[in-house]
Each structure stands twice: as C-alpha cells, then as structure tokens.
Design a protein that fits this description.
Helix content: 10-25%
Radius of gyration: 27 Å
Number of domains: 4
Shape: globular
Largest sheet: 8 strands, antiparallel, barrel
Strand content: 25-35%
Length: about 575
C-alpha cells in the first residue's frame, strides 16, 4: 500500500517522521468530506493565509478566496495538538502526502496564526496536560452528553470556529460516524407535547441542534481575547536559568533548575538542561531536551536522561505574559498518567524560596531538620535570618549553599497550629510549613482511580496512589474545615476485594500493588483461562494504605476504589507515537 509521511507532535520538535497507511473511506463519505473541504465561507470572518508552504501543500483541496482565506483552514483556531490532529486526518482519510519537515512548519505557522489566546487555553489545559480528572462541563447538558460520549469536553473547549465551521464539523461527524444520529445526535420518538416546568412549550429540537446553538456563541471564531493576544504576540525571551519546583505523585516534592538556551536562528526553539532533586530521597536527576513555543505562550518540550528514549518526558506548560513564570505538567508518553506538576520561576538577583523537603512540623518537638530549597541564598545564613513565626525556633543552620539551606528547628508545645509563612534573608514564601499536634487520620489520593489491563496487544494504564496524613485541627473533629494536612506519609500498600458479586475474586487477578511505592500495575490483557468463564483480568478492588505512627500509636488505615478495566482500544488523540 502506498504510504504517506506526516508529522507527529512529540512535544519537543513536533516529532519524528513516521509513515501512516492511507485509509480508504467509503465513497459516499469520502465525496461528502471532499465537498465540505472546499465549501465557501460567506461571512466576513476568517484569517488570510500568507504562508507559501501551507498554500502549496494544502491548496489542492482548500481553495483560496480573493481575501487570501483558505476554505476550512482560515475559519478555525486551535492548539498545536489540534492542528497536528487535522494534518493526520488529511493524511489518513484524504490521501494527503506531506513531508515531515513541511508538517512541522505548517503546524507551527497555523498554531501561531490561528491559535488560542492564554485565556482560551487555560480552562481546558487539563486536556493538553493529560490529567486524569473528573471534569464536569457546566455549559450545556446536551453539548456535554453529545461530545463527551466519545471524547473529553476539553477537546471541544480548545476549538474556536465560525458558525459555518461548527455546522460543518457536525456534518463531518454524521458523515463519518452515521450511528451517532441514533445514539446521541437526534431525538428519539415523536415530539413532546408536555410543557416544561416553567409552563413554556417543550423544546423539541434535536440534541445536536441544541448543542450547535450553545457552541456557536460560546466558542466563536472571533473573541476579544484572541484579538488582544494576536496584536501583542511575540517570541518570549526565556534565555537563562529558572528555578524548578514541583510535585511528583508517589515520590513527593522536587526542586532544581532549568537552563534554557534559545536558537539564534529560531527564537521559539530552545535547548534545555534540567537538574532536580527528589526532596524525600535526595535522588538527583539530570535531563536534556529541546522545546518549541507556540502562539507565544504554549511550551511543548521533550527531555531524556542521557538520550535514552525510555526515560523520555513530554513537557506541556504555559508561559505567563510577564515571562517570569511557567507552569504545567511533565509526563511519560507511554504512561500519560505518570509525571510531575511543575512550576518554573525566573531566577533574578534576589534570593527566592521554592519550598521545603517536608510540609509540616509537629509541635512539642525539640529538634527537627528541614531543608529549604531555592536560589541565590547568601553564603552565610544565621539562625535569625530564617523565620517561621512564633513558637518555631531555628536552633542551628547546619549547612548553606546557593540553592539549599539545612536548619534544625524546635517547636513549642503550645505553638499555634496552622500554616506558617517563611522568611529567609527577607524573602517570603507563603504557607511554607504547617504546625500540627498529631496525625489523626490518613487519606488515600486519589480517592478513586482507573487502570487498564494490557501488555500483550495494547499498552497498560497504570495507577499511582499516595497517602496523606491529617490533623483534626482545633475543633478536634475529623473532616471539618479546620483540618490540617500534615503531608505525605510512608504506608504499607495492599489490595483487598471490592465485593460486588458472590465469590468475587478480582483481587487475585487484576494486577499487583507495589507495597512500598503505591504504584499499581494491572495484569495482562486477553482472556485468562485461570478465571471462571475465561474472563479478562478486570474488576474492582480496594487499594488499602496502612500507616504506623511514631511512638507506638495505633495504625491508621484508609482506602481508595480502583477500577481495572479493558484496554483503551481506540484513542481519540494522536499526539503520541511509540510512547513519545
């Protein structure tokens, strides 16, 4: 079969070239798609295309009008991932042949010219950062039901289209996936004659018509945010060293630095050198990589340890308008569910505190060691230079470097409980340390999770858990607003049966829990002859954490619900290839 090359957004350099087989659609659907592709926009909206490569590569199907606007392309705005997905669709469905270098250039141009403003991206950043969250769209029930039946609402929220383009998008869905009419798009049964709760006549429009009525004004092509951003957009000046602070679920806080160097010939391209330390264990990691900035604010990068692809992390971050901070998430392309949240802060001349190796200190203790991470710390630091507030005394400064101060503190038995601000050499870090009396209970985070079997035909989806201790606070009652989070604690992890039917045996087959790290690895996919009925290794279990406090107190126990389900047979995003 003839093969066509296209680009993949591997979140560093918009990926490596790979080959994709051309999918031959049914003639009716292909003809419908082709007719839509050259549809003429009659509004005065649309952004002219001035890039020669876009005109050359896309011009055979997308016609240019007398204002320089190309059909379909000029009337939609989205993220780099969205434009990449469009290119892949053109290759797989319409036999477009695109060289990898051309695809990278086209995605860059379209993302910059027909992208999204920072304010338009942030509400749906969870989609780009691959966060496994229980997002509930509040805009419109019909839209939520229709769109989230197949993909997340984040994918919808990261689109801006003209009214005509929203119509054509719905037509594309109906053409390529005709069953959607019977599933969610159209109303079943005869029109209703029953008035609504407010006494008004019933709304007998089809759900798809209600959704369009919501999408067009909610996510229009023209917005004040884009008008303002496109007028001021430029390549951000990020050269230099940045302070890194973050949190890696299951492993705790991380601190370090990221050095960015811009390419003189391409100011949106950067090489990075990252070094950070896991505060709880002291393990140090050094990573190197490359990144591209799209639309003046969207950072997409990829780093490895020593060039080893198995250590690859993808970086999806948002650059703030003042170029002083960058935040987002790093995650492994094979397992999007694993990876840290990160915050980068530009290092200037003044001292800056990133955080502590532990978030709390128990009152009534004479000596606790804390490590303060940051940058530009003075060479000599006296105990009086480190201030946690009343009741917390720094008794000794054990060691000082430019990036870390190690101190011993004592906390009086009557010290006020709650969060304490930290001052170091005049620099403030808010709510750096929580003073508590004792750990009264623990919670497992997340409270529920999902894993997918795999490893034979499809990749596995892992599940990471961690346990946090809490103090009851001043009222002495658990689960109230004044409870204090003490921080992550070491626990013993185990799996127990979540009994749903008689003779349930899911705990024996669904997978294994690392007793020390809280990482659950599901079993392999495919039927298992050892199970009754030759069933797959799926089911429901409890993930149980048991913590033994210091001083011989009774163990604390908590649990979370884990659903181990079938592989992800169909992926609606196309931003990973071979896990990167």
């Amino acid at each position: 079969m003839k093969r066509a090359l296209f680009c993949v957004l591997s979140l560093c350099v918009l990926g490596a070239a790979i080959a994709s087989r051309q999918v031959h659609a049914a003639p009716q659907a292909r003809d419908a798609a082709a007719s839509i592709g050259v549809a003429t926009q009659t509004t005065d909206e649309g952004i002219p295309i001035t890039n020669v490569k876009v005109k050359t590569v896309c011009g055979d199907c997308h016609k240019t009008d007398d204002q320089g606007r190309m059909s379909r392309i000029s009337f939609r705005r989205t993220t780099p991932e969205g434009w990449q997905e469009t290119i892949r669709r053109m290759v797989t469905l319409n036999q477009a042949e695109i060289e990898p270098a051309d695809a990278r250039d086209i995605v860059k141009y379209l993302s910059d010219t027909l992208g999204l403003a920072p304010e338009e991206v942030k509400p749906a950043s969870f989609e780009l950062e691959r966060r496994l969250i229980d997002f509930e769209y509040q805009g419109n029930d019909d839209t939520k039901e229709i769109c989230s039946s197949c993909h997340s609402m984040g994918r919808v929220m990261l689109q801006r289209r003209t009214g005509k383009e929203w119509d054509l998008l719905l037509a594309m869905h109906r053409g390529w996936y005709p069953l959607v009419d019977f599933q969610v798009f159209r109303r079943g049964g005869p029109p209703s004659t029953t008035p609504g709760p407010d006494g008004r006549p019933p709304d007998n429009r089809h759900p798809m018509d209600k959704a369009l009525a919501h999408l067009k004004p909610t996510f229009p092509f023209k917005t004040p945010e884009w008008t303002a951003w496109s007028a001021t957009m430029r390549s951000p000046r990020l050269d230099g060293t940045w302070l890194l602070s973050g949190y890696d679920p299951g492993y705790g806080p991380i601190f370090g630095t990221v050095t960015m160097t811009a390419n003189p010939a391409s100011p949106d391209d950067f090489t990075t050198q990252t070094t950070f330390q896991y505060a709880r264990t002291g393990r140090t990691v050094t990573r190197q990589g490359r990144s591209i900035v799209y639309t003046g604010h969207q950072w997409r990068g990829r780093t490895t340890i020593g060039g080893d692809d198995d250590t690859s992390l993808r970086e999806v971050m948002e650059i703030e308008r003042d170029w002083q901070s960058i935040s987002g998430r790093w995650f492994n392309g094979s397992y999007d569910e694993l990876g840290p949240d990160v915050m980068l802060t530009r290092i200037g001349r003044e001292p800056v505190v990133a955080g502590l190796d532990r978030p709390s200190a128990r009152r009534g203790t004479s000596s606790q060691t804390l490590r303060i991470f940051g940058a530009n710390f003075p060479a000599a630091v006296a105990p009086s230079d480190v201030d946690f507030g009343p009741g917390v005394t720094v008794t000794r400064v054990a060691a000082t470097t430019a990036t870390m101060i190690t101190v011993d503190v004592s906390v009086t038995a009557d010290a006020a409980m709650g969060a304490r601000d930290l001052f170091v050499a005049g620099t403030l870090h808010k709510a750096a340390l929580t003073v508590f009396d004792k750990a009264d209970y623990i919670k497992v985070a997340p409270e529920w999770n999902m894993a997918r079997v795999g490893g034979v035909v499809f990749p596995k989806m892992l599940a990471q858990f961690e346990a946090f201790a809490y103090s009851n606070g001043l009222d002495g009652k658990p689960g109230t607003d004044d409870d204090l989070q003490v921080g992550p604690v070491d626990v013993a992890w185990s799996v127990e049966e979540y009994t749903a039917i008689f003779g349930d045996d899911d705990a024996k087959f669904v997978g294994e829990m690392n007793a020390a790290t809280g990482l659950f690895t599901p079993a392999v996919d495919g039927p298992n002859p050892a199970r009754s009925g030759n069933r797959n290794n799926v089911g429901d279990v409890w993930i149980v954490a048991t913590h033994t406090p210091d001083g011989g107190a009774a163990p604390l126990r908590a649990r979370a619900h884990l659903v181990v389900t079938v592989p992800l047979y169909l992926r609606w995003d196309f931003s990973t290839v071979n896990g990167r």
